[in-house]
Amino acid sequence: MSFIENAINQYGLSAILILIFLEYACFPVSSEIILPLAGLAGARFHVPFITLVLASTAAGLGGTGMTYLFGRVGGSPLLEKTMKRFPSFEKPILASYRAFGNHGKSAVFISRIIPLCRTYIGFVAGAMKQPLISYFFCSAFGILLWNSLLTSLGYYFYQYRESFFFYFNRYKKWIFVCGSLILLFLLFRHISSRRKKGEKAQEQ
User: Fold this and answer.
1) Helix 49-85 crosses helix 132-159 at what angle (to 10 degrees)?
2) Angle CA(111)–CA(127)–CA(78) in degrees, nearest 5?
3) pTM for this model (two decimals)
4) DSSP assigned state of 28
5) CA-CA distance, 10 to 19, in Å (whole number)?
6) Is the predicted pLDDT of residue 196 greater than 80, yes or no?
7) Per-residue pLDDT for 104 more than 60?
8) 37: Cβ contacts below 8 Å, ≥ 6 apart
9) 110 touches 117 (CB < 8 A)
10) What DSSP element (H or E) covers 174?
11) CA–CA dist 116, 161 (Å, integer)
12) Of the segments 112-121, 135-144, 186-195, which one has the largest average pLDDT value?
């Protein structure tokens, strides 16, 4: 996190675009972190929001183009070798295969908002020989949607941060109470779910 912030502070928009490129090329950079930070940096450096989104989309297309090329050249055999060598790739790649099998070419668009196979769908689309134009067309819309959503969180938070902290400090007690109740509810539901699974397993 500190490395990303330092890179953005030192190199500005260039660092943002490189990090987004790497994230879409399946390097270990989380879009849930980098895109809101990109929005914060864009607002601070007075970059128009539409320019920021289009530039981040172009960077994303460049990164996902690399994964597509990898899958296209190597095909499924190379992906199988990759999963054996890098076990962490297995789950998202298999999930991407299922998505492609269920939705066909539209899976490239749909998967852009599914964290598990959002960036890995490029490997599968390439291995399945989806036409390049079709792949980039579907990817562009999916990446544009995802980047717009997460970038806007940081971009507009920076612009209205004073109002945010004013209301947060004013109602922080209620926010804390509501947050605690939600966590207790989720914990209770998790425990109940595990008990039911245990009871079913005993019955069988």
Assistant:
1) 120
2) 115
3) 0.70
4) S
5) 13
6) no
7) yes
8) 4, 5, 8, 16, 154
9) no
10) helix 161-203
11) 31
12) 135-144
